[in-house]
């Protein structure tokens, strides 16, 4: 059993006997940390095995929306025990905090190399709910970008609400209703104006148009049906949606960077939603 698996096994034993009891120095440290710092620490602990991360999760109330994982800390512990020892890697590239939600954009080695978005909801300083969306890491896209490189600096905190509204409008107008006549309301025409990190799409509106044409020619569908959540901090906004891609039921997680009221950079993950008969919990993929 690896170090992190032992940590979870020991923790769950304590929970069963007397509840989760944190040491006083960990409690003091937790009170001084932001929710963003706690979420990053939890993800980092997948690699490091740092036991302090357990202190940031409400063990009595932890709802899991990863449909391949059982509910609560017990389900998470089972997955960690199945990992080959020393194989797990987790490097957070971007972290966004919106009220009681934190979104992390992370490079993983978790049963193979993956890029993922994790969303944590906090109550009273503890994590009580978790969503994620994972995709296998692919080679660089036609413009030479990876799924994780690019800008990281959070700016324009005073424009958070404005930028969230722009992305919500973009998702509704362009992605859901397909009104491409409005595209320049959101993205400028020059290829240099829109940096793309999707592994199959090049920069600019020309890259997006070419990718959509190739999908159509192959008889494959990309359709956004429902937007479930918009979260943002400053110039970064995340949209969480449901729809169809390559004729499969999927979750779309899209991260946008904005400048001066326009979308200028995009990252995403697309994950197939399994049949309900395969779910390890009954919480659903969304449920915000």
UniProtKB/TrEMBL annotation:
Boundaries of every SnoaL-like domain copy: 42-130
Top-level taxon in the UniProt lineage: Bacteria
SUPFAM superfamilies associated with the record: NTF2-like (SSF54427)
Pfam families reported for this sequence: SnoaL_2
Entries under InterPro entries matching the protein: NTF2-like_dom_sf (IPR032710), SnoaL-like (IPR037401)
Protein's recorded name: SnoaL-like domain-containing protein
Organism: Shewanella pealeana (strain ATCC 700345 / ANG-SQ1)
Taxonomy of the source species: Bacteria, Pseudomonadati, Pseudomonadota, Gammaproteobacteria, Alteromonadales
